[in-house]
Structure formats: C-alpha cells, structure tokens
Amino acid sequence: MVKELQVQGVFAENTYFYIDEHTRSGFLIDPGAQAGLIYEVIQRNGWHIEKILLTHGHFDHLGAAGLLREKLVAPVYVYPDDAKYLTDPRLNLSAGSGYPITVPHYEEFSDGEIIRLKANSRFYLKVIHTPGHTPGSVIFYSPDEHVAFVGDTLYQGGPGLTHFPGGDPVALRRSIGTLLSLPADTVLLSGHSGPILVSDL
C-alpha cells in the first residue's frame, strides 16, 4: 500500500508511506517537513515504521527525519555518496533557508540492495542508484506494486535539476535511461509533482 502526504516546509514536498497491509509495518520515504503531522498520520493508522529511507540528501526531503528517527525509533538510511549532505547544511541547501538542518545519525544502503521488511520478508524495495540531481540520488523500486519512488530524479515536467552542489546533467541523462528500463506500467512517484507512467516518458 502506497500513501502520499504532501508536507510544507520552505517548499511543498511529497512524503510517502509504503506499508504492508497485512502487518501494518512499512517504510517512510523522504519526510521533508512537518514531523508532527507525519507522526500523527502514522499513529492514527496504527502503522509501525521500520526504516526511514531518503532518495537524496536535500533538506526538503529530510527536514523531519531527525525528529522522526527519535520518535519512531527507526533508523534513517541514505546512499553513501549523499551521506555528507546530511551533516552539511550548505550541501543539503538548508543553510540558505535560514533553518540549518543536520541529521547526524544515519545508516547507508548500497546500489541494488533489497530492503526487506522485518515483519514480512516478502515485502521489499530495491535500491537503484540514479545520480545526477545529487551524487547519491536513488530510487526505491517495488516490482510487486509496480511503483518507484524517484525523489527529484524526475518530475512531471521533465528531469530533475542539476545546478545544485554535486549536480551532474550527464549522469542525470543516464539515470533517466535507467527509469526508462523499468516496466512500462511502472508508476514513478516524484518528490514534487504528480505520478508519471514509464510508458509516457
């Protein structure tokens, strides 16, 4: 089960819950802001969040991660190439917002890693490295649900931005090719737009 919650910090951003309906456990993806609201939704639905997963290290995707890590007792995960973004407000862009954000405690995942739910090992997401927007941008792909959480790699209007520190337009073009290699019926869930169908790219 996929649930979307738009949160509002400096920017509006789509936070996602990927929940196993049988166990009510799951993953929280890109909690960008409004930790209290996100926590309320989790509590109201009786969900247990096992892991907090970040598609990349920009502050509008991790602004609530530190507080929710404590409240949910759930580790935060990021790709190694973006780990330094979590502790550097200049890299994660929060320094310019007037509210510097850091997430000093985190774990790392690897390209191709299968992140399984402890409550149900058949419920999982695959990590696919898609650099370009940032060096450590990833998508989380669920072949069972035919969805991929793509962060800022792609929006409805086109590819993600590359003018921030660590951005690479050549790498992003390759990453868009990675998205195109997913099954045509895969729904791409973006951080700042509505869903995109692979067959429409």
Terminal Cα span? 24 Å
**Percentage of residues in DSSP E strands:** 25-35%
Mean pLDDT: 96
Q: Considering the protein shown, what is the CATH homologous superfamily? A: Ribonuclease Z/Hydroxyacylglutathione hydrolase-like
Report Rg: 15 Å
- Unreliable runs: none
| Overall geometry | globular
CATH topology: Metallo-beta-lactamase, Chain A
Description:
With 201 residues, the protein is an alpha/beta fold. It has one domain: Ribonuclease Z/Hydroxyacylglutathione hydrolase-like (Metallo-beta-lactamase, Chain A), CATH 3.60.15.10. Helix content is 17%, strand content 33%. The chain has four helices and 14 strands. It has helices at 35-45, 59-62, 65-72, 169-180, and strands spanning 2-8, 12-20, 25-29, 48-53, 76-78, 107-108, 114-117, 120-129, 138-142, 147-151, 154-155, 158-159, 187-190, 196-197. The strands form three sheets. It has a six-stranded mixed beta sheet with strand order 1-2-3-4-5-6. Strands 7-8-9-10-13-14 form a six-stranded mixed beta sheet, with no helix packed on it. Strands 11-12 form a two-stranded antiparallel sheet. The relative contact order is 0.15.
What's the helix and strand layout?
Elements: E1 2-8, E2 12-20, E3 25-29, H1 35-45, E4 48-53, H2 59-62, H3 65-72, E5 76-78, E6 107-108, E7 114-117, E8 120-129, E9 138-142, E10 147-151, E11 154-155, E12 158-159, H4 169-180, E13 187-190, E14 196-197
Parallel strand pairs: 3-4, 4-5, 5-6, 10-13
Antiparallel strand pairs: 1-2, 2-3, 7-8, 8-9, 9-10, 11-12, 13-14
